[in-house]
Input
Amino acid sequence: MPQTASNTLIELGSKLLKGVCESPRMEAEILLAKASKINRIDFYKQVFHIDRNQEKIFNQSIELRSNGMPMAYILGKKDFWSLTLHIDKNVLIPRPESEHLVERALKNLPKKSFNCKILELGTGSGAIAISLAKERPNASVIATDISKRALSLAQHNALENNVHNIEFIVSDWFQELKKMKFNSIVVNPPYIDQNNKTTYDESTLKYEPEIALFAKNKGRESIFSIIKNSPYFLEPAGSLIIEHGFDQSKYCQGLMREFGLVNIMSTKDYNGHIRITEGFLNT
Ligand SMILES: C[S@@+](CC[C@H](N)C(=O)[O-])C[C@H]1O[C@@H](n2cnc3c(N)ncnc32)[C@H](O)[C@@H]1O
Output
C-alpha cells in the first residue's frame, strides 16, 4: 500500500494551518497523531509511514480546522480540571476560565463535607459538575441542562471519569427542582447579548450551540432569572457562584443585593478579568 512519511504530512499540515491558529505545527502533529493512532511525542523520535487511509483522515481534519472548526470538536475531546471530557456539537467547549468557578466553589465546600448538596445549572459537557463531584466525593451533586443531548453527554462523561455522585435532571433553570435546597449553586449561563451575534468570533458562532452562548436583554435574561430565584434554593449560608461577561459584575452584584444575598464578592479569572461573582444566603 502506498505510504507518505509523517514529517512530510506534518510540514504540509502546518503550512495549511498557518494563519488559522496560533500553533500550526503542534495542531498538525496532534491531528496526525489522532489519524494514525501514533503518540505525538514519537514523531520527534522517528519518521513513520502513514498509509493512504490515515492520510485521508488527516487531510479531512486539516480541512475542518482550516475552516475554523475548534480542535475540541475535531478531536471529540477536551481536558478540563483533572478530567478528559467527550465533546460534541451539542455542548459548549469548556473554557479554562471556568476552572476558576470550580476553585471558588471548592473554597466554600469543606473537604470532608458529608450531606453537602451542590447544584450546577446548565452543565453542558458536565465539566464543572463532574470536577466538583470528583473533588467532593461525599457530596450529592445535581447537574441540570435544558438540552437533553447535552445532559446525556454529561452523564456519559461522569461515567467515563468514574464519578457516580451526580444526578442529572433536564430542567429549565430551577423549574424541575421544586423544594430542593443546596449548599452551593454554580452556574456558567449564556450571557452574550444576542444582538451582538454579528460581532462575535465566527468560528464560535458557527460551531458552538447558540443556546449555550446567547441571551436576550443585553445577555442578561438568564442571569436575572437565576439570581432572582436562587434564594429559594439555597440552604442558610449557602452560596451562589456565577460566571458572567467581563462587564456584567456590577449588574450581578446589584441583583444579588436586590434579592437578599449577602457577602457579595467578584473575583478575577486567570486573565485578570472580573468574570465571577458570588453571594451567600444569610444564616
Ligand atoms: C455557557 S454554557 C455552560 C456549559 C458548561 N457548564 C460549561 O461551563 O462548559 C450554558 C449552558 O446552559 C444551558 N442552558 C441554556 N438555557 C438554559 C435553560 N433555560 N435552562 C437550563 N439550562 C440552560 C445550555 O444548554 C448550556 O449547556
Observations:
- Residues 3-67 form a domain with the Helicase, Ruva Protein; domain 3 fold (CATH 1.10.8.10).
- The first strand starts at residue 3 and ends at 5.
